[in-house]
Amino acid sequence: MQRIVRDDVIVDRGDGRTARLGLPTRVDPRTATPVVPERPVTPKRKGWLEERLGVSGFYSKYGRKAFPVHTTFFLGEMATFSFFILVVTGIYLGLIYIPSNVEIDVEGERLPQAYASVRLIESIPVANLFRNVHHWAAHLMVASTLLHSLRIFFFGNYRKPRELNWLFGVGLLSLTLLASFLGYALPYDAYAVTATGIGYSIARSIPWAGNVVAELFFGGAFPTLGSLPRLYTLHVFVVPAMTAALIGIHLLLIIKNKHTQPGYARKLAEPGRVLGVPFWPYQTLLAVQLLMLMFGGLFILSALVPIHPLEAYGPPGPETPDVKPDWYLLWVYGFLKMIPSGAVLSTPIGTIGPEFLGGLLFPGLIFGLMALAPWLDSTNRPSVKRYEYLEPPRQAPVRLAIGVFMLAYVGMLFFAAYYDEVGLTLAQMWYLSIVIPGALATAALLWAKWAGPDAEQRFDPTAEEMPDEEVPAAH
Ligand code: HEM
What we know:
The protein is mainly alpha-helical. It has helices at 48-53, 55-63, 74-94, 113-123, 125-154, 163-185, 190-204, 210-218, 227-257, 265-268, 279-304, 327-338, 354-371, 373-376, 397-416, 426-451, and strands at 3-6, 9-12, 26-28, 33-35, 66-67, 103-106, 109-112, 277-278, 345-347, 350-352. Among the domains are: 1-35, no CATH class; 69-321, Up-down Bundle (Cytochrome Bc1 Complex, Chain C).
């Protein structure tokens, strides 16, 4: 039996003869050692993209970034993809929508042009589907952004070195809510005009600057001919462009600071390294799957549950319908409802009334406190080099109790939106809105103190001794 060798491929022929396959190859019959002639080495040609962009350098710098695989880490990605879906579906809707409240004749009916264009969208099945997906994706973006920020809050990940990214996150949450509010106006049905009218009177209630702000956002006394083009431009261009820019900065800061990691990573990865899958190809594949799932889920939901159809409220008319905002703005509405109408204060710069207190000062206070969390948290000490791991919430009773209080308080504000409909008085509502969150927060505090680890068993979320130089991410 003799072996025939072709370069490094050995073919077993078994007939004692040599064959010329590609390069001439001989076998020394005494030793059966293949004798392969020297071959000139031609350098491998680089790929098209490699020659032009040097993509391999880019890959080794960023493509190997490790992503921790933990379900809650997908919430941020869900927010990113919801934004992407909103942009794609929004571009489609923008091809048909007309941002004008000029009245036109449509089959014998006088209708605002914007309303008529949304009616046209509803009459085209695929456009109607896209409209519904756009609306549901807005809900999903707010929900995933909120849950994402709650994860970061409850696990203490806003601490050093991620304070700046937390601030950009608060900016993103504000922009997400603003974009949703601006979207309300566009269908220009009775609901849209009433809800946007509430926003207009809140803007006007700002002491000293109210008229200028109202003019800037609403193009004059709402509703005027200038209102829709302005709200439309803010909704489709200004706010999305700012959101895209902030998401970009947010993601760059994540690459720079690296992800925090679940506690189990400490046992498995060396200090300074992230335990996870590399961005390319594994994390990308996971992300594409998530995007496809979200697209599929939203399309199915939109086909089954149409959202805010025009005929629910009809075109704007002399009657003002009783409207409540969607859940993500309902807490502001609830608080506005809880402020007694007599709460008016005259100051040298203007009158502070219930609309300003409930519609701007209160949400501003909540967002302000949220933004300051990294500086209000006394565990975020300058002496700590970096917090690298998720801290179990049970281990931080005060943070847990504050979070529970805020969540319960916002929950009570949802309830406040309906308090008169269930027969409660304003005084009872105020009482409940403090007592229930207070009781739940105390229960959370006591539970965490009782069930939390003792001093020796505490998990240390700070970085272990790390080399001073940046260590490349594991893959
Ligand atoms: C449009 C809204 C947002 C988008 C698209 C977004 C996107 C992301 C993504 C993809 C990640 C990495 C994966 C993860 O850790 O979940 C992340 C991490 C982070 N986000 Fe956001 N985010 C948004 C809003 C927020 C908000 C509202 C906050 C806080 C107020 C926030 C603070 C952070 C922080 C501190 C990190 C680093 C977390 C860590 O390393 O554990 N983000 N974000």
